[in-house]
Amino acid sequence: MIGTVYEAALGGQRCWVRGADYQTRELPVERWLGECDEDPCDAALVARCEGPTIDLGCGPGRVVAWLTRRGIPALGIDQSAVAVHLAGRRGARALRGDVFDELPREGWWQTVVLADGTIGMGADPLRLLNRCRALLRDGGHCVVEFDPGATGSETTMQRLESETQVGPWFSWATVGLDALEEFGQRVSLRLKDVEVFGERGIAELAAI
Ligand SMILES: C[S@@+](CC[C@H](N)C(=O)[O-])C[C@H]1O[C@@H](n2cnc3c(N)ncnc32)[C@H](O)[C@@H]1O
Question: How confident is the model at residue 4 (pLDDT cuts 50, 70, 90)?
Fold first, then answer.
């Protein structure tokens, strides 16, 4: 996802994702740049964030900004310099980095957020959930967005495109609720609650 096409999209250029089947879908950049209370799924997601919260793949930081304004300590991590810059501009504390590298206060966070498809980062959801568990304190929880239309876990090649640029292919995972529950169990995260809002679903997984 990193790269100039994504960053141009954050700058307002129309941009889409092309799958290996050559089908395209628009990137929901407006949502990423918007506010959490403009969308019922985002509102439900932030309502589940309690205590110190770390948002992995935070993009331009709408979740972190929303929590910060409400007095909840929150930190975003993203590998895109532009995303981190935009997050900072809206009052969200964010660090540039890879979620698989060492992060601040591992084992201390009460909530880990994976919003808007970021369960697909690294194309290895089991590894990512294991990473989330390592960041959480005992009794913490993970709030993960998933695709209610998907079953199992699938990794596909995608690339970002705009009218003027074509990015490199990268692999990304899509995860259904069944796979999320199974992967969670394997890394001591127990599925606790689920809410579905049309094409977006939120799962809460408790650290056990
Ligand atoms: C689909 S966007 C989601 C943005 C954000 N969660 C939101 O809801 O507004 C995915 C984000 O993940 C970031 N990303 C992808 N792989 C990453 C990695 N390994 N470490 C950190 N950030 C990553 C991208 O830079 C991008 O900002």
Answer: confident
> In sequence order, which residues have a C-beta less than 8 Å from that of residue 9 and are 6 or more positions away?
15, 27, 29, 160, 162
- Would you tell me the crossing angle of helices 125-135 and 177-186 to the nearest 10 degrees? 50
φ, ψ of residue 121 to 5 degrees: the values are: -60, 135
Superfamily per CATH, domain 2-207: Vaccinia Virus protein VP39 (3.40.50.150)
* Phi, psi (deg, nearest 5) at residue 160: -100, 140
CA distance 16 to 172: 15
Output the residue whose Cα is nearest ligand 1's atom 4.
59
- Looking at residue 3, what is its pLDDT? 55
Helix (H) or strand (E) holding 44: helix 40-47
What digits encode the pLDDT tens for the residues 159-200?
Answer: 999 999 999 999 999 999 999 999 999 999 999 999 999 999
Pocket of ligand 1 (CB under 6 A): 1-2, 32, 57-59, 62, 77-80, 83, 98-100, 115-118, 121-122
> Which sequence spans correspond to the domains of the chain?
2-207
- What percent of the chain shows pLDDT beyond 70? 99
Which of 124, 200, 162, 168 lies closest to 1 in space, CA to CA?
Answer: 168
Look up residue 27 and give its DSSP letter.
-
